[in-house]
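Hi there. Long-time user, first ticket. I'm pasting a complex I've been working with (about 850 residues overall). I'd like to know whether the download I got is complete or cut off, because the file seemed smaller than I expected. Thanks.
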Amino acid sequence: MAAAPRIIVIGGGLAGLSAVIKIAEAGGTVDLFSIVPVKRSHSVCAQGGINAAKDLKGEGDTVLKHFDDTVYGGDFLANQTPVKNMTAQGPAIIDLLDRMGVPFNRTPEGLLDFRRFGGTLYQRTAFAGATTGQQLLYALDEQVRRFESEGKVKKYEGWEFLSAVLDNNGVCRGICAMDLRSMETRTFAADAIIVCTGGNGAIFGKSTNSVVCTGSAQSALYQQGAFYANGEFIQVHPTAIPGEDKLRLMSESARGEGGRVWVPRDKNDKRAAQSIPEPDRWYFLEERYPKYGNLVPRDIATREIFKVVYEDGMGIDGQPMVYLDVSHLAPEKQHKLEGILEIYEKFVGDDPRKVPMKIFPGVHYTMGGLWVDFNQQTNIPGVFAAGEADYSIHGANRLGANSLLSCIYGGFVAGPQAMAYTKNLPAQVGDGGHAAELKRQNEKNSALLNNKGTENPFKIWRELGENMTKHATIVRYNAGLDEADAKIVELLDRYKNVNLSDKSQWANTSFAFTRQLYNMLELARVIVKGARLRDESRGAHYKPEFAERNDERFLKTTKAAFVDGAPSISYEEVDTQYITPRPRVYTSS
Amino acid sequence: MTERTIKVEVKRQSGPDAKAFTETFEIPYRPNMNITSLLGEIALNPRAINGAESTPITYDSNCLEEICGSCAMLINGKAMMACSALVDKLLGAVEHGQKPDLSKTITLAPLSKFPVVRDLAVDRSVLFENLKAVKAWVPIDGTYDLGAAPRQHPQIQEERYPLSNCISCTICMEVCPQFNDVTGFVGAATIAQTKLFNMDPAGSVLKEERLRALAGDGGIQECGFAQNCVQACPKQLPLTEAISDIGRDVFIQQVKDFFTH
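Hi, the file is complete. Here it is re-exported in full:
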């Protein structure tokens, strides 16, 4: 192509901004679409840190050990080539972030400080207090603002992606998007698009995710023919504050700095937590996992907490809660956790520096996402994906502090690969499908606005969340999953009868939400179907009826395709060319 | 048992040029609610207190844990983040476990210094434009691997980190008497970011340009030292310290420029 390639990036979190920076640097032109001002993207919520085997603690850490920990932590479901590449690039990515001015914590010598995280025995996690995601997001946001001021990037903040524009050959020629103020829907031309739209926690109602994390964009693309892979792998984080409107994350860094998880040994113990002496406390993770202690991977810690509460009946005061205790830590250690301790203090009212925190697991992250090849391209030509929105890297369970790295790595691959793709792109024939896609989306809009039903979309959402949390999170049973799918089908049917109390055409947030809700329902079916068919236990996916990992049948990537209005599942071999799968055991000392 | 409820008065406006009006809602009370969950309750059942059918309230929100900076609004007249504004506390239960007074009414209104988009949502893009004006970034040469950055004393990190916690909520601008159309004052957040980047060993290469951008009309001289900003900031940024440091630097820069131009 003669002209400079025109690329659209959707989503302004770490993955999206990383892609934008690479494209702008290489001379491409980028249109950046985001529902919220990019500085308010969900990456801002990441707390504990970012992994890279810099080995600045004299432990003999290497990128190969990081590679192995990640593959093992993911229960061998991740394709190994991209994981190997990501871990190899880790140290350079940290150095780059440091050069961008991220206020990483330092050792007295002035070097980057590192802390330990779950699923590893090495201090491999660089951090900026307990607000690392915020600091990283800002650093990339600042670089993009610089490119914006130089005219290399145009931001469309407050625009929501609705769909890809596909030509007669199924090749992507742009996107259809909606201005969330004027509600204007229009198409934008692009030679390639990169989808970096994050997670889908909203499908579970309450989660640690932000409001925008609905998975709506991924679902729309799945409905347009993109494969959605490993959807059933949902990470439930062991330590979140139960809340009225959301579950607020208490970072793994609390345990990385020495925080301990416990319950009273006597379930009838009515004493205040701080007055319960050491021998009367049951540190169940340390007892069961002497080697990793409180820093076992998240899927394991979550299941243990779940068992302590629901099988042993040992939750605090009979409630679904256990203690996460940092009150014994030295003030310097507590200082490094300031960001999250403030969150606890603000939202719960107790001072976690003095009183153990009460926590419970909460839906946190999707390992699954849009299927991509090793160049981050989906099966739709010209549609790339990166970050939490794609399925690569984390397999069946993500290790803490690998998400920020995978977002930046994914964006750094997707940007240049999208540029390379456009070089051989045949010229568009006719309008490339723009008029047809715009018409399709406008019809959806007017159908919704003119619907005379009785169903409140927020009520349907609440029921979806309760249904998914009950049947498709920590422990899964086939009967429950069948029930869950039947419920979603019922909700999809009731959705046809949805009624918008607000039919105005200006900043109509419930209209935008109701469009997202439909996509959430379709994607929920993918999660449930994938879980239903996977009769084994692997990483975050746990079925008591099939408690063992079954490599023979299920060492495979789940691929969901949207066929005749429902998910159709097929399986694909996993790339295990570097590390032979072995049993995943964290108990041995 | 009758359901316990609370009253919420919301200042609404259907668009930038529409007339504002107040609508009152009665909402089922549960302990430990925050303002965003209260707004969620209205969306579940959008009906005003007189029984009239209404619509969900438009407002900005995202993370709901006071880190994305979206949901700033006036709550009982005070600029606060809606997610961390706890209903029990607003109803007088100051101490943990104290009973809230359910007869009190909570009022919600949009920030007053920014153009209203709709209801409680306002346009705060002026802050992002200000950040461009002071070049709030480190001008790296490129993203390729250049090895480790220079070592940096932990003291620099200790001083920069609190400034880097700014969530761009604009509450410091809302409460500032000098932040208005007459002065064109950039506000405390932008000045704090200037200090953040001037303190970075590599970022300081643009120090002089940043200081010149803050000299003159709308710049740092507009600050009247009311100190509202530092009191209202939800993230406790050392804003007045940043203003006085940058104020000194701007003055020195102006003197230097006077003798060299």
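A couple of notes from our side: The longest strand of chain B covers residues 5-12. Chain B has two domains: 5-121, 124-142+150-260.
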